[in-house]
Design goal:
The structure holds three protein chains of three kinds. By secondary structure, chain A is of the alpha/beta class. Chain A contains 17 helices and eleven strands. Chain B has helices at about 5-25, 30-35, 40-65, 70-75, 90-95, 100-130, 135-145, 150-165, 170-195, 200-205, 210-220, 225-240, 245-250, 260-265, 275-305. Classes of the chains: A alpha/beta, B mainly alpha, C mainly alpha.
Amino acid sequence: MTTRAWSAALVLVLAVLAAGCLRGSSPTDAISEDELIWAISVNDRPTHELVAQAWNEAHPDTPVRIEWLPPDANEQRRQLFLELNAGSSLFDVVSMDVIWTGEFANNGWIDDLSELRDQVEGNSLQASVDSCTWDGALWCLPYSSNAGFLYYRTDLVEEPPTTWPELVEVGLQAAEEAGISPYVAQGAQYEGMVVNFLEYFWSAGGQIISDDESQATFAEGDAARTALEFMRDAQRNGFYAPGFNTLIEDPARLQFQRGDAVFMRNWPYAYPLLSGEDEENPSAVAGKFDIAPLPTFDGEGTISALGGFNLAINAFSRKKDLAREFILFASQEQDTQMILGRRSLPPTLQAVYDALADDPAMALLSEVLPEAQARPPLPTWNSISQAMQDNVFPAYNGTKSVDAAIEAIQAEVEDAVSIGGQ
Amino acid sequence: MSTPPAPTSGAEREAADTRRSPEVAGGSGRAGAVERRTTGQRLGKTALLAIVFLWCLIPFLWMFATSLKTTDEALASPVPWQGPWGWSNYLSVFDQGFGYNLRNSLVVASMTTIICVGIGSLAAYAVARLELGKKALILTGILTVSLFPPVSLVPPLYEVWRAVGLLNTYPGMWIAYIAFTLPLSIFILTTFFNAIPKDLEEAARVDGATPFQTFYRVILPLAAPGVGSAAILVFSYAWNEYLLASTFAPRDLGAQTVPVAIAGFSGSVQFQEPVGTIMAACVVVTVPMVFFVLILQKRIVAGLTAGGVKG
Amino acid sequence: MATATDARPAAAPGGPRPNRNGISERGLARLFISPSITAMAIVALFPILYAVVLSFYEYVGLQQGGFTALGNYVDALTDGRFWDSVIATFVFTVFSVTFEFLIGMGFALIMHQAFVGRGVARATILIPWVIPTVIAAQMWRYMFEVTPGFINWALPFVPDDFNWLGSSGWAMFTIIFADVWKTAPFVALLLLAGLQTIPEEVYEAGRVDGASAWQRFTRITLPLLRPAILVAMLFRTTDALRIYDLPAVMTRGAFGTETLSVLVQDFVIATPNPGFASTLSVLTFILVLGVGVLLVSVLGKELVLGDEA
C-alpha cells in the first residue's frame, strides 16, 4: 500500500479511537437535572407521550422525561430488574405490570404508598387497586388496565355463546361452513398463555390460592382438570387454529383481521384495528365483527384476567415527593385518564368509563372489568407462572398427562406460598 | 430445502476451474483447454452457483419485500409481492433515531476491531514466535476464559460497570467485546503466524532488524489474510452482539447499538409487532455491511496474489 | 524484565536472546501478551470467579441463604430439566456444526475460485452472516410461523398449516436451520483464509503426479487445512454449546429447544436464583471446556503451539 493510503488509514484509525473513548451525542443530552424520569414500555408510546405532555404543561419547572422500555414484557422486567436490583436512582416512577407488585415490593424496590389509599379507593377500579395491594399495604397506583374480550364474526354467528362448550360447538360448525379456523387466542409458551388458561380455570370455579394467601388450592376440586382437558380437546379436534401453540397477541389479531377465524380471545387493543379506523390499514372484517364477554363453563357471568400497568415509586429515587405528585396526576386525574380512554388504552378511573359509555369497547370494559380477576400478587408469582407455562403447554399439546401437570403446578404453588409469606 | 452438493462435486468444479484459471488470470492462450470443459460441467457449476445464490438471497429478498409492505393485510399474507407498497417503514425507522444507533454501532465495532486485532496480533506473535514459557498454559487459559456462558457473566459485570460509570458509554461495550473476541483472534493469528516459514524471520534478523521491525515489515504482511479474517470476525461479532449491549446501553441514544434498538421497535399500539419496520431496519443495517465486507475481501486477495506466501 | 548487556550470538534456540535494543525476547514476549491478558482477566475472569463463588450458596429468590457447598450442584444434576437441556444442547451442536462445516467448506471452495462474478458470489455468501443474530432469529421466526406462513407457501410439498415452530423435533430443526444459514459463512471465512495459504505449486505437483480432483482434495487440501479446521471447529462447537439468541427468540425454549444458556437465563431473570443460576453456568462451563479440550487433543495441539508443544 502506498504511503498515502497508509496515512489515510492511520488518520481514520485515530479518528475512531478518539470518538470511541466516551459516548456519542444524544438528543436527550441537553435536558435539565430537575426532570422526573418515568420508565414505561414503548408500547402505546403516543398515549404516554400525551400524558407526559399534559404534566409538562401543568408543571413547566419540573418536567417529566420518559425512559422507554422495550415492548417485550420479559425484556421490560429484565431492564427494571437490573436497575432496581443495583439500587440505581435513575428511574423515579416505574411502570409495573400488574403481576410484579408482590415481587418488587418484597425485594424492597418500591415504596409503600398506603397513605394514598383513601385517595384511590372508590375512584379507581377495585380489581386494579387489588393488584396494587400486597401484604396489606398499597405499593403502587393503578394506571392502565386490560381485560379479555371475545371477538366474534357477526356474519357467521348469530349470538355470542355464553359457555365454552357451546363456543366449541358453534365455532367448529361455523368454521367448516366458511372454510376458516374456529378460534385464535394466545397459545405460545409464555405468560399470555397462562392468562388464557386462567380464564378457563377461574370460570370453572378454580382458585389458585386461598383468600388469605396461606394455602395452595390449585388442585382442589376439578377446575384445573376441566380447564386442561378443555384445552387438550380443543387442540386435538381442531378448535384451536393451526399454529395455535405459537400464537401470541398480534399474530392472533392479524389472523382474525384477515377473516381467517370465527372467534378470537384478545385484549381490547384489537378493536380499533379490526374496525379499520386507520385508512392506511384496512381490515377485512370491518363491520363484520363484534365483541362480547368471555364465556364460562356454566354460563353464569363472565371472568377475564386483569392486565394493565401500575405506577410505583423507585425506593432509591431522589425525587419521591415529585414522583408521588406525578403518579397521582397520572392515576387519579380525570383529564389524564381520559387521554387513555380516548386512545383505546383501558384506563383505571371509574369516572372515565361513565363518561365514555357510548364507545362499544369502553362499554364492554366497564361491564367486564368489575369481574376481572387479578393473578395472585405473590412475590413468587413468576415461578408459579413458569410452572404453569412448563406444564399447561405440554398438557394441552398432548405430550404430558393432565394429572402430572396438575400435580407439578400444585407442588410449585405450595412452594411459592410457603416462601411468599416473608 | 436442499443443501448444496457434497465436496466431491465441488472438487470437480475446482478441478475444472483451476484448469481454467491460468487463462483468466494470465491469459496464456491455451485455447485447447476450453474445449475440454464439457457442457455438463458448466451447467453443473451454474446450477451450483444458482443454488448458493438462492440459499443466501431468498431470505434477504423476503426481508426486503416485507419491509415495503405498509398494511397489516399485506403483512399477514405469505405472498412476498402482496401490496400495497411504500417506503413508510423506512421513514418510521429513522423517526426513532436509528441514525444514532448506526453511528454507535459503527464506532463500537470499529473500536473493538482495531484494538482487538492490534493487541491480539502482538499476543499471537508472542505465542507463535517469541520465547514465552508455559505456552500451553497460557493458550489454555485464553481459551478457557472465553468458554463461560455469557448470560451468567452479565449480572456481575453490570454491577461493576455501574460502579465505575461505564454504563451508556462506548468503552463500556468495547472493553467487554475485546475481552470476548481476543481468544478467537489470538488463535486465528497464532495459527497464521505459525504457518509462516521461520527462515524469513532469520533472514530479517541477520539483516539487523529488531523484533518489532521484523513483526511489522515481514510477518504482518504475510499474515494479512489471517489479520483480515480476524478483523472481519471481530467486527461482525461486535456489530451483531445483543446481550451485553442491551445490558450496558439499553436506551440512551448516545450509546445504544443497532440490535438493541431494533428489539425496541414497537407499533403505535401495545402488542402490535411492527414487522415491516423491523425488516426495514434490517435492510438498512445489512446493505452497508455487505459493501464493507466486499471491499475488505478484495484487499485480502489482492495482498495475497501480489506474491506474499509463494516463494 | 531482564535486560542483558552482553551481545550473545543468536545460537541456542529457546534461550533468551537479547538484541541491540536491550530488551530480551522473553521480556518482549511478556510485553506483547500483557495487554491481552489484562483485558481478558478484568472482564472475563472476575465474573467467572464471582459466579463460581455464588454457586456454593443457597438462594431463595434473591435472598441469600446459607453456604451450601455442593448442594446446588446435587440439585442441578438430579433435575430432569437440566439433563433435557443438555440433550437439547448436544443435538443442536452436533447437527449445526456438521452442516455448517459441510456447507462452509463448499462455500470456501467456491470463494477460492477465480471466475467471473466472484466478488458478487462472495458478497452473496456473506449476506446471511452480516445480519445481526437477533434479527435473523426474528426473520426466520416470521418465515416459519403459520401466519403469515411464507415457508409453507413457498414449499409446494408442505401443507399451508404446517406448524414448524410448534412441533417437537421440527422446532429444533428450524433453530438448526437458522443457525446453519447464518453461520456457515463464518466457517467458510475461516476455511477460506486457510485455503489461501496453500501454495498453488502443491496442487500443480499433485496434478503432475496424476492425482484426481478428489484425491487432491483429500490428500492435499484437507491435511493442509487442518489448522483452519481446528480453529473453526473449536470455536463453532463452543459457541453452539452456549447458544442463546436463536432458541430464545424463535421458540422461547419450547418443544425441547431449551438449551443450557436458555435455562441459565431463566434462573437469572425470570425466576431469579443467583446461586442456582451460577451453578448451572459452572456446569455448562465444565461441559464446554471438556468438549474443547477433547477437540484440541484429537485434532492436534501442536498446530496451535508451533513446534514447541
